[in-house]
Prior knowledge:
Blueprint: H1 2-29, H2 32-36, E1 41-42, E2 45-46, E3 56-57, E4 63-75, H3 82-89, H4 93-103, E5 115-119, H5 121-130, E6 140-149, H6 155-158, H7 166-172, H8 178-184, H9 187-191, H10 193-197, E7 202-203, E8 205-207, E9 213-216, E10 229-231, H11 235-245, E11 250-256, E12 261-268, H12 282-290, H13 299-302, H14 312-321, H15 350-356, H16 359-370, H17 381-397, H18 420-427, H19 451-463, E13 466-467, E14 473-476, E15 489-490, H20 495-499, H21 502-508, E16 528-534, E17 542-549, E18 556-562, H22 568-585, H23 593-604
Parallel strand pairs: 3-10
Antiparallel strand pairs: 1-8, 2-7, 3-4, 4-5, 4-6, 8-9, 10-14, 11-12, 11-18, 13-15, 16-17, 17-18
Helix pairs in contact: 3-4, 7-12, 11-22, 14-16, 15-21
Amino acid sequence: MRTVFTIQGLLFFLLFVGLAACSSSDQQTSDPAQAADPTYTRQRIVVSDSLHRGRILDRCDSVLVDTRPQFLLKLPRRLLDTLALGQLLDWDSVTVRQRLADALPYGLASTGYPIQFRLTAKEAARVRRDSSATKLQKLVLTQRRQRVYTTSAGASVLGYLGAEAQAFYRQAKRTKRGRFYRLRSGGVETYYNGLLTGHWGYLHPLVDEQGNQHGTWAKDTVFQQGQDLHLTIDAKLQAYAEKMLSGRKGYLVALDPRTGEILAYVSAPVYPASTITAPDQAGVRTQLLQDADMPLLNRPAMLANPPGSVFKLVNAAAALQLGAILPTTGFRCDQSLVRCVHHHPQANSLTMGLKYSCNPYFYQAMQQLINRVPDSLAQDSAAARHVNLALWRRYVRSFGLDSVLGADVAREAPGFLPTPAYYDKSRGTQKWTYRSIYSLSIGQGEINLTGLQMANMVAIVANRGWYYPPHLVRSVGNSGPLPRFREKHHTLIDSANFAALLPGMVAVLQRGGTAEASSLADVGITVAGKTGTVQNDEGDDHAAFVGFAPADNPKIAVAVYLENAGFGATAAAPCAVLVMEKYLRGSIAPKRKRWERRMQSRATGR
Length: 606
């Protein structure tokens, strides 16, 4: 019995010591003020200022998105009297049918689906006054504050507030691309959500029984009102550019090369900016999600394609820098090397090579670069090709290619530039020759660039070798753009070698050049540009164009890419120069009005 008692006593003693140690530890880690006086209580006080979400404005301070009251009319779908509805809201029969089709996600099959219509203040007043006298039953008119778009343009820029896009998310889940769109289509509303929302301020006092404060138990937070976003976008130019592309597949990016500010950002096919969050656009959203042309894809940032002949600018700059060619170097148009689609005189200089976009010229320029054999590798031409391709890639990558530019766009794609190791693996040997990679010389094959990279590439040429990262927001409140957009980046290529490209780019839009019909010389504007026609094994070729104006003092740089549109000179170049003229002059010269109507007609498919 003595032994048992001793063991029990020992266990009790150890348990008591453990509890005492835990109690001591708790006291040591608790708040010092509370330990000194346990009557202090923690309080959390919300700063009383009301929190408002910031607005989105364009570069001219026109409000594009704001939080405002919105009138909603809710009514049951079953046994709906469309005639009475039209009479109540003063809508004709066509308008009623169209509004119903837009509002219902699955057409007539959804007879139990409740319908919501956005109403104007005038229409809401009619409902309040006359609804009781109609045959319509169970009408519910509500008013709520929601993000309101004052423009239909710029959907891919403005984006949407996630909290208001829940109906879209539910619809998107039913498609294979649902998760893809949810993560990538939020625009500046999502990218700058924290700054637009702001945050509450909180005080954290320690208070005694008499209400006296004795320090704080946590760090106070400062109230921050939601900040306005001042975009780099010119709303009028954005709307005009969207008319140029409208229902076509492709993109247009226009930016100010001096600052990196994006002036217009079009992802086509286009759709109204309010569509994703509007409560009466479920049917339109269904069409967008199911459309084979993928209008919800943010093409300029997320879709990387072979750039075609516009990439000859980069290859020429690299070849000049590495000593493979001189501005005066000429090559004959040898069709046995690669097909040349233009019939032109001999390209006896780089200027002529660019003017005529001669494929054999750039084939041979790139061949000079890749096949050079330095003395140190005289006995190993394969190793020399590896070294030269790696060197080419290093200089080309300094344009911001094969990496994200860091634009304020969600999920920006990096594009792709092949490495020697890539060809070793894809060709199954390290002894590949230039003939197996020559498509690089004309911007085809494995090279892939995004629209942002294309626009930034031509901005670099306009600036003679430097750039600021492209961005959509020029000011958050009064603080200017994000710090990274103020950092100047330089390429590895000398400014003199960029200057050597300019005569050829100007010649592209002069008599005999590939885009001579797109000249703006009649209004005193000299455009420097480069056309591109991208071969496409799955259908019609893609059309591309990059350029800037005025050539001697660039204020706007534009990149256009139209899928399955044919020649860059006839499809992409006209869109680009019309946007340039609109921005620089504010209007289109009468000489090009017919041309303008033709581009818009193609865009709408009429």
